[in-house]
Amino acid sequence: MRIISFCADGIASAAEKGFFDWALQQDADIICIQNLGAQEYDLQDDLYYPEGYFPYFYDSPHSINGVAIYVRQMPKAIMTGLGFGELDVEARYIQADFANLSIGSI
Asked: Please, are residues 62 and 36 in contact by the beta-carbon 8 Å criterion?
């Protein structure tokens, strides 16, 4: 299994610089992205939905921070936040649960 973790410092900027082209060439099963700097509704371009992956986003209402996880196999469950109430508004954690594995992007 191949997993990539990437701090984007703004997913739109990273995409413009070729992040998705590079990431798809890595043939990863799971791609974790931190610091999206965007809300999911801003990410409607097909670029953010590469073929062969199921994307899941957890974004902040202020377009700061935010995390995403792209998986090839549909997970059993997706969990967001760490259960800290007010602190979870910063959107810093998303987790994909599979049969015998959980992967978190923090």
From this structure: no
- Residue 64 in this model has a pLDDT that exceeds 90: no
pLDDT beyond 90 at 88: no
Q: If DSSP states are collapsed to H, E and C, what string results for 6-38?
A: EECCCHHHHHHCCHHHHHHHCCCCEEEEECCCC
Do 79 and 97 contact (CB within 8 A), yes or no?
yes
**pLDDT above 80: residue 62:** no
Within 10 angstroms of residue 29's Cβ, the number of other Cβ atoms is 15
CA atoms within 13 A on the CB side of 32: 15
Whole-structure pTM value: 0.91
Q: Which residues pair with 102 in a beta bridge?
A: 97
Pick from 105, 8, 2: nearest CA to 58: 105
Pair 11, 68: CB distance under 8 Å? yes
Residue 103's DSSP bridge partners are 96
